[in-house]
Amino acid sequence: ATAGGLDVATADAQLNAIQKGTGFTPIIGVNFHLTDMINIAAKYEHHTKIELTNETEVDDVNMFPDGEKVRADLPGMFSLGAQVSPIKKLTASVSFNYFLDKGAYYGTTDDAGEQINNETTIDENGFTYAASLEYKLLGILGISAGYSAGNNGVNDSYQSDFGHGLKSSTIGGGVFVDVGEMITINAGVSVTSYDDYTLAGSNALSETVVIPYNTTYGKNTMIIAVGVDINL
Length: 232
Hints:
Elements: H1 2-9, E1 15-20, E2 27-33, E3 38-45, E4 51-59, E5 69-71, E6 76-87, E7 90-100, E8 127-136, E9 141-151, E10 168-179, E11 183-194, E12 197-204, E13 210-217, E14 220-230
Antiparallel strand pairs: 1-4, 2-3, 3-6, 4-5, 6-7, 7-8, 8-9, 9-10, 10-11, 11-14, 12-13
């Protein structure tokens, strides 16, 4: 009986589903160019309601019924940033983002399958902060480096195999080359590390047999990017 229960609990499951939706986000921003050395900006992005529709071909997990609509909002966000150029070739920047997660719906459901708001799954609104330096070595060549970190304030009820929130920190670096006065070519790499999050659970194989287990979520991410800026 125990072996049979474990077979069911750990059996492979197939899922092939696409979720589609659209939203409209009003954004308000202000910029203060105090001097040639100092620039300060602030922005507010409104909470955006997004309703996703499932387009499902295979759903062994019974979580994505074809044609069902679910909420997956974008939270409101406050942003602040400042840029300082103490010397002509050096630019330093700092920024802070505060996400109004509790007022949004992320599609989380309760035991009855009803969608619940983020007050149940998020203890604190999330935030990120970042700092960077950019230095122009030669007339056309420059380098940059930066660091950012954040926490989304979620609790155990939020975490799942389909979506989990982890504290993170990121370091990055890049180079840029000016091609004439209108075009700049950029290349960069960033590495993000996430704190592990362990969630306790159990499988009830029968009324008297309960098997406890721990699920640990963790990952690392590397991004390599190349871009072109065109200044008209």
